[in-house]
Design goal:
The structure is a single chain. The protein is an alpha/beta fold. It has 18 helices and 14 strands. It folds into 2 domains: about 200 residues, NAD(P)-binding Rossmann-like Domain (Rossmann fold), CATH 3.40.50.720; about 200 residues, NAD(P)-binding Rossmann-like Domain (Rossmann fold, 3-Layer(aba) Sandwich). The longest helix has 29 residues. The chain has an 8-stranded mixed beta sheet with strand order 3-2-1-4-5-6-7-8, with helices on both faces. The protein has a 6-stranded parallel beta sheet with strand order 11-10-9-12-13-14. It is elongated and about 75 Å long.
Length: about 450
């Protein structure tokens, strides 16, 4: 089982395919976008992910990984197929499964030409019941093959973080395998034990529906922690001598809580948390249950960017024709992903107020230009971004911004008003020299 195909070469699929190839597996990646396939075959990733460029170039050069737009070739030449296509949100919040269905049909059509057993693994994030009630019947109907006898099927959710995706694949906390039968689960477990060898993480074998819900529950809980700490930060905003970082550090020392995902800020974004939370809420409603806690988590997050707008008005009054510098566009450092990024939401609100925006980001400007075009200005350096600005808002905590000093803001800005949504600076150093406000820090000098 050394030949593997991966359908969908986005953040999840390409990183996973490259890591498999780096461990000696022969991998064929499939994507419907010919430009993306051409770029990958040149050894260049079509997005920013630390370490991926070098690893991809090496695996392509060695011939361990190839990309194609032809699903038939990929399935016929491999024994296991992973489906890693996107499942974006529909207007009602439910998951759009069209890409999944299209990939499933393409694989199933090729199975009619295969006489050997083939394992299909769903790695896309899908609502509970999808593998059992949609994918399996679709494969049966399209291929006229029998599950278990002619093909195997598993649900195997990923738990990657953009920016550390390679590390997360090579050092996962767990492997979850939702299997339709023992042979399917055994085959996938064997693959992972070969991949990880003596460093195999805990493997949880369960039903496909349970595996699907594990992924949603995992992301929903992490999103809940972020909305919780942002709620406490918003309370701190009104309480003198409070600092959310000290609070988060203290409660994070409790082993029942731990410090992960207790960093207050402008809200969570990216391709997973908002989408998966909406899909889980939609699934619960379809089942006749109102998930009030999850709805509150989403509401807190959707309202968080407005808190930054309120702080901007507190510093500047009317925002019309005010020049505002935005430092950071990606939803977090070490990625160029702006999907559901707080920065985009904040920029759109500022534009409605008539503000003039100049933005900088080390990686995400090309993606932002596709979405915002010439509605805003783009700077090549942080210093250029700050030039003659009435206000600077730090949204993404890139290392480059941490190196800026109060003197940099004073020198380049028209007025050194700063909103630090990530608290990357020492408030004492900044409050004495600039008009500095940070999310989660009380209105007076801190004694923390």
């Amino acid at each position: 089982m050394n030949q593997i195909s991966v359908f969908g070469l986005g953040y999840v699929g390409l990183t996973f395919a490259t890591c498999l190839a780096s461990k000696g597996f022969k991998v064929i990646g499939v994507d419907i976008n010919p430009t993306k396939v051409e770029t990958i075959n040149k050894g260049k990733p079509p997005f920013h992910e630390p370490g991926l460029d070098q690893l991809l170039a090496t695996t392509i050069k060695k011939g361990q990984l190839t990309a194609t737009t032809d699903p038939q070739t990929a399935v016929l030449q491999t024994q296991i197929t992973f489906i890693c296509v996107g499942t974006p949100s529909l207007p009602d919040g439910s998951a759009n499964l069209e890409y999944l269905k299209n990939a499933t049909k393409a694989i199933a059509q090729t199975l009619t030409k295969k006489n050997t057993w083939h394992l299909i693994v769903i790695r896309s994030t899908v609502p509970p019941g999808t593998t059992q009630n949609i994918v399996k019947p679709l494969i049966q109907k399209t291929s006229n093959k029998k599950p278990g006898k002619d093909f195997g099927l598993c649900m195997n959710p990923e738990f990657l973080r953009e920016g550390t995706a390679i590390h997360d694949i090579l050092h996962p906390s767990k492997i979850v395998i939702g299997e339709i039968d023992k042979k399917s689960g055994d085959t996938l477990e064997t693959l992972y034990r070969k991949f990880y060898k003596n460093q195999t993480p805990p493997i949880i074998r369960t039903t496909p529906t349970n595996a699907e819900l594990i992924k949603y529950a995992n992301n929903a809980l992490l999103a809940t922690k972020i909305s919780f700490i942002n709620t406490i930060a918003n309370i701190c905003q009104h309480l003198p001598q409070t600092n959310i970082d000290t609070i988060a550090k203290a409660i994070g020392l409790d082993p029942r809580i731990n410090p992960q995902f207790l960093q207050a800020g402008p809200g969570f974004g990216g391709s997973c948390f908002p989408k998966d939370l909406k899909a889980l809420i939609a699934t619960a409603k379809q089942l006749g249950y109102q998930p009030k806690l999850l709805q509150a988590v989403l509401q807190v997050n959707e309202e968080q960017p407005q808190k930054i707008i309120q702080l901007a008005k507190q510093l500047l009054g009317n925002l019309k024709e005010k020049r505002i510098a935005i430092l950071g566009l990606a939803y977090k450092p070490n990625t160029d992903d702006i999907r559901e990024s707080p920065a985009i939401k904040i920029i759109n609100q500022l534009l409605k107020q008539g503000a003039q925006i100049t933005a900088h980001d080390p990686a995400a400007i090309p993606n932002t230009k596709k979405q915002l075009g010439n509605k805003i200005q783009y700077a090549n350096t942080p210093y250029e971004c700050l030039k003659n600005a009435h206000l600077a808002i730090i949204i993404t905590d890139w290392p480059q911004y941490k190196q800026l000093t109060p003197q940099d803001y004073i020198k380049h800005m028209k007025t050194p008003n700063i909103i630090d949504t990530r608290r990357i600076y020492n408030p004492q150093q900044y409050k004495n020299k600039t008009n500095y406000i940070a999310i989660g820090i009380g209105p007076q000098k801190q004694n923390t």
